[in-house]
Write a structure and sequence with these properties.
heterotrimer; A mainly alpha; B mainly alpha; C alpha/beta; A: mainly alpha; MetI-like fold; about 0% strand; elongated; C: alpha/beta; D-Maltodextrin-Binding Protein, domain 2; three-stranded antiparallel β-sheet; about 50% helix
Chain lengths: ~220, ~230, ~300
C-alpha cells in the first residue's frame, strides 16, 4: 500500500496534478463556506424577528439539508441555467448546504448574546444595523464559530462527491483510482482531505480567538 | 418547468415497477439506511455513554469524531471496494457507518454531559453504584440528545447512500446516476425529490421517537421551568 | 472584529473574481477560438478517454496552443452538451458511438461508411477531423467457463441463451443497444444490470457471476489478463469505433488541426492497447505516456 503511494507520488506529473486538485478542492469548499455565512447571517438575524419566522426558517433549512448532494449537483444546471460542467453547480450547491447548516447556529448564537448588553447598546444610541455588526455579531462569535467549523468539515468532505460529475477536487483521485483499480490515489485523496479539514479547522479556531480577544484576556472564561 | 416534468416522470407507474423500478430502489435505500444506523449505534452509543459517564477521554473522543466527519464517503467506499470487490454491499455499509458514527457519538456524549450535575450527585448520595447511576440517571437523561444524534446520522446516511450506486449496489443513487448518464433531467430531478421526501419522512419518524423517549420526570421538570 | 469582517469581505470578493475569471473560458466561449484563447480538451469518464485527452492536449501544446484539460466530464450525452455550449472545444471520440448519439438508426458499419455518415449527421457547430485507424469497439465478453459450457464464441449463438443471461453494462447501454440486439441477433437478455462503463463494477459482475455477459471494450487489457472470451459480432451490430477528434467549429487554428491529423495518423489499435496495458499494469501516468507518444510519433 505504502509502496503504491510512493510509486504514485514519484511521478512529478502526478504530484503536480494532486496539488492542482488540492487547490481546486480548497476553492470549491471555502468559497461556498463564505457565501453560506454571508447568507446565513442576515437570514438568522431576520429569523429572530418572530416565533413563526424562526420555526419556519429553521425547519426549511433542515429540509434543505436532506437533499442528497449528488442530486443537488446534477439538478443545479437546470435551476441556474449553467453548463453541466460548470464549477458553479458545485459551489452553489455547497453554499446552499452551508446556509442550511448555519442558520440554526446563527439564531442560537444571537440568542446567546446577553440581553443587557443589547439594551446598553440601544441606550447608547446604536442604530439597529450598527448594533448588529458592532455588538451582537462579535458577541455571537463563540457559538457561531462552532457551527462554522462543522460546516467547513462537511463542505470539505462533500466536495469530493462532485467528482461524479467531473468537478470534485481531490474526489477526482477517487474516481481515477477506482477505474484503474489503483488504491494509491484514493488513499492520497482521503489523507489530503483529512489534513485539509484539520488545517482549516485550526485556522477557524485561530480566527475565533482573534475575533474574541476578551475570551482569553485573563478575566476567566 | 423541470419540476413539472419530474412530477410527470413520477406519476408514470412504469417507473415504479420492475426489478429496476423506484420501489425496489427505495427499499434498497431504506434497508441500507437501517443497517448502517443500527451498526453505527451499536458502536457509538456505548462508547459515547461511557466516555460521558467516566468523564475521561472526552477531548480525544470529540477530536476523533470530528476527524471522522472529514472522511469522504466516496473515497472510503471506492477504496474498500478495491480491497474487497466481491462484497460491495458490506463495503458500502462500512463506508457509511464511518459517516454515521460521529453524530451518534456526539449525541450520546453530549447527552450524558447534559444531565444535571445535581441529579448525578443525588444518585451518588442515594448510594448508587457507577453502573446504576449510568443506567438509572444518566441514560434516561441523555436520551433526547442521543436520539437527536441518531436523527442526524440517519439524515446524513439517507442523503449519502446515493453515492453507493457508484459501486453498483443499488439504492436511489442508481436511477440518479442512470438519469445523469443518459442526460434525462426529469428523472434526475424526480429521484432527487424522492430522496429528499424519504429523508424528511425518516426524520419525522425519529422526531416522534425523540419526543416519546423523553422521560416523564424530565418532561415535568421542563414544563415547570417553562421551556418547550 | 472590523478587521476580520474586512478580511472576510475581501476574501469573498477575491474568490468571486477568481471564480468568474476561471469559469469564463469554460462557459463564455462563443466558438471564436482562433488560437488566441486557450483550447479546452475534455474527456469522458473512463481511463482511455483520459489518455486520449492527454495525447490531444500534448499535441496541441506542441503546435503552440494554450491548452486546458477537463477530464472525466461524464458520458457522451454530457460531453456533447459541453461541446455545444462551448465549455469544452475538443473531445476524443469513437466514430460509431458518436454517430449513434446523433442518429440512433444509422446502418453504416465499416469505418469509412460510419465516418461519412458522421460528417453528414453532426449538428451544426460540431465537426470531426480525420479519423485514426485505431479502434476501440464495444464487445460482449463471457468467461472462459461460460464459453465452453455453451460453446459460445459469437453473438449469433446468443439468441437461445439470452433469456437466462444477465448482461452487465453501462447505464446507457439498454437505451442504445437493447433494440438493435433484439432485431439483429434475436437476443433479449433476462435482465440488464447497469454496472459501469467497462470499469471495476462491470469486471466484478462477470467475475462474481452476477452477470454472465458483460459489455467491455476491445482495447481493455483486463480481457486478456483474465483469459475471457470476446464474442464475435458477425452481423456488425457494433459499428466501427475509430478514434476521432470531435471539435467545436472554429476552436482550432490550422496548426491545431494539423497536429490532430498527425496524431490520428500515428495511432494504431495495438499502440492504444499497449498504452492502456501500461496504465493498468505498470501504473504508468497517462500524461507522461502522452508526452512520450507525441514526442516519438509526431
Amino acid at each position: 500500500m505504502l509502496g503504491g503511494i510512493g510509486l504514485y507520488l514519484s511521478s512529478p506529473t502526478n504530484r503536480e496534478k494532486v496539488l492542482g486538485l488540492l487547490g481546486e478542492h480548497v476553492y470549491l469548499a471555502i468559497l461556498p463556506l463564505l457565501i453560506g455565512l454571508a447568507v446565513a447571517l442576515p437570514l438568522g438575524a431576520l429569523a429572530r424577528r418572530g416565533a413563526l419566522l424562526r420555526t419556519g426558517t429553521v425547519q426549511a433549512s433542515s429540509v434543505l439539508y436532506t437533499v442528497p448532494s449528488l442530486a443537488l449537483f446534477v439538478v443545479m444546471p437546470g435551476i441556474l441555467g449553467t453548463s453541466i460542467t460548470s464549477p458553479a453547480n458545485v459551489v452553489v450547491s455547497l453554499a446552499v448546504y452551508t446556509t442550511a447548516l448555519l442558520v440554526r447556529p446563527v439564531v442560537d448564537a444571537l440568542d446567546a448574546v446577553p440581553g443587557h448588553v443589547v439594551a446598553a447598546a440601544i441606550a447608547m444610541g446604536y442604530r439597529p444595523a450598527r448594533r448588529f455588526v458592532a455588538v451582537e455579531l462579535p458577541l455571537a462569535v463563540p457559538v457561531l464559530a462552532a457551527g462554522v467549523r462543522v460546516a467547513s468539515v462537511s463542505n470539505i468532505s462533500l466536495v469530493s462527491v462532485g467528482a461524479l460529475i467531473g468537478i470534485g477536487g481531490l474526489g477526482e483521485l477517487f474516481t481515477e483510482g477506482f477505474q484503474l483499480r489503483y488504491p494509491a490515489p484514493i488513499v492520497i485523496g482521503i489523507l489530503l482531505t483529512l489534513v485539509l479539514a484539520l488545517v482549516v479547522d485550526l485556522l477557524l479556531v485561530g480566527l475565533r480567538r482573534l475575533a474574541t480577544p476578551w475570551a482569553h484576556a485573563g478575566v476567566g472564561s | 418547468m423541470i419540476l413539472v416534468e419530474a412530477l410527470g416522470w413520477l406519476v408514470d407507474p412504469a417507473n415504479w415497477q420492475g426489478p429496476d423500478g423506484l420501489l425496489v430502489r427505495l427499499g434498497e435505500h431504506l434497508w441500507f439506511t437501517v443497517r448502517v444506523v443500527l451498526i453505527a449505534a451499536v458502536i457509538a452509543v456505548p462508547l459515547g455513554l461511557w466516555v460521558g459517564h467516566s468523564g475521561r477521554g472526552g477531548v480525544t473522543l470529540v477530536g476523533a469524531a470530528n476527524a471522522m466527519r472529514a472522511l469522504p464517503t466516496l473515497g472510503l467506499v471506492t477504496f474498500l471496494f478495491l480491497l474487497s470487490p466481491s462484497t460491495p454491499v458490506l463495503v458500502t455499509i462500512a463506508g457509511l457507518v464511518v459517516l454515521a458514527v460521529p453524530p451518534i457519538l456526539a449525541g450520546a456524549y453530549a447527552g450524558v454531559q447534559s444531565v444535571d450535575g445535581r441529579v448525578t450527585d443525588a444518585a451518588i448520595g442515594m448510594g448508587m453504584t457507577g453502573w446504576q447511576r449510568l443506567w438509572q440517571a444518566e441514560v434516561p437523561g441523555s436520551l433526547p440528545l442521543l436520539v437527536g444524534g441518531v436523527r442526524n446520522a440517519a439524515l446524513q446516511v439517507v442523503a449519502t447512500v446515493t453515492v453507493a450506486a457508484y459501486v453498483g449496489v443499488g439504492g436511489l443513487g442508481e436511477p440518479l446516476l442512470v438519469g445523469l448518464a443518459i442526460n434525462e433531467y426529469p428523472q434526475v430531478a424526480a429521484v432527487a425529490l424522492v430522496t429528499a421526501v424519504l429523508a424528511v419522512a425518516v426524520d419525522t419518524v425519529l422526531a416522534v421517537v425523540q419526543r416519546l423517549v423523553v422521560p416523564n420526570g424530565l418532561r415535568l421538570a421542563a414544563s415547570a421551568a417553562g421551556a418547550t | 472584529m472590523k478587521r476580520i469582517l474586512a478580511l472576510i469581505t475581501t476574501a469573498v470578493a477575491v474568490l468571486a473574481t477568481a471564480a468568474c475569471g476561471s469559469s469564463d473560458p469554460l462557459t463564455g466561449g462563443d466558438g471564436g477560438g482562433d488560437g488566441g484563447g486557450s483550447v479546452v480538451v475534455g474527456s469522458a469518464n473512463f481511463p482511455e478517454s483520459v489518455l486520449l485527452m492527454e495525447i490531444y492536449a500534448e499535441a496541441l501544446r506542441r503546435a503552440g496552443a494554450e491548452v486546458q484539460t477537463r477530464p472525466r466530464l461524464g458520458t457522451r450525452e454530457i460531453t456533447n452538451a459541453a461541446l455545444q455550449d462551448g465549455s469544452i472545444s475538443v473531445m476524443p471520440e469513437y466514430t460509431g458511438n458518436l454517430l449513434q448519439s446523433f442518429d440512433p438508426d444509422f446502418t453504416a458499419t465499416a469505418p469509412d461508411e460510419v465516418y461519412a455518415a458522421l460528417q453528414q449527421g453532426l449538428p451544426e457547430r460540431l465537426e470531426v477531423l480525420e479519423y485514426s485507424e485505431a479502434q476501440d469497439s464495444d464487445v460482449l465478453v463471457v468467461t472462459q467457463q461460460t464459453s465452453e459450457q455453451f460453446g459460445l464464441t459469437s453473438m449469433d449463438q446468443l439468441a437461445p441463451l439470452c433469456g437466462r443471461f444477465v448482461l452487465g453494462a453501462a447505464a446507457e447501454w439498454p437505451q442504445r443497444w437493447a433494440g438493435p440486439i433484439a432485431d439483429i441477433y434475436g437476443c433479449t437478455f433476462q435482465r440488464v444490470i447497469s454496472t459501469d462503463s467497462g470499469g471495476p463494477v462491470t469486471i466484478e459482475a462477470l467475475r462474481s457471476g452476477a452477470a454472465q455477459v458483460v459489455n467491455l471494450f476491445t482495447t481493455d487489457p483486463v480481457i486478456e489478463a483474465n483469459g475471457w472470451v470476446e464474442l464475435a459480432d458477425p452481423k456488425q451490430m457494433y459499428p466501427a469505433q475509430n478514434i476521432v477528434p470531435l471539435v467545436r467549429s472554429g476552436a482550432l487554428d490550422q496548426a491545431g488541426v494539423d497536429a490532430f491529423n498527425a496524431v490520428s495518423a500515428a495511432l494504431t489499435t495495438e499502440e492504444l492497447t499497449e498504452l492502456n496495458r501500461r496504465i493498468a499494469e505498470e501504473r504508468a501516468v497517462p500524461a507522461d505516456l502522452a508526452k512520450e507518444f507525441v514526442a516519438t510519433a509526431l
